[in-house]
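Fold this sequence, please.
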Amino acid sequence: MRIFERFYRIPGTRQQGSGLGLVIVRDISALHRAKVFVKARAHAQGNCFEVVFPVHGPHKDASLF
């Protein structure tokens, strides 16, 4: 999706911003093996974003943390 591209701005938007927010979310999520979902809201402005992180047991070297 283009909204996850660096510096992408939706044409015609009046919102201020650099276009980096969703790129940062995508990259941090990828580091944690999480998935990012976009849910369009009917009859409303904007979208809803959901980040789902995998559930794992304790790290084998958990004593280091």
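The first helix runs from residue 21 to 31. The first strand starts at residue 35 and ends at 40.
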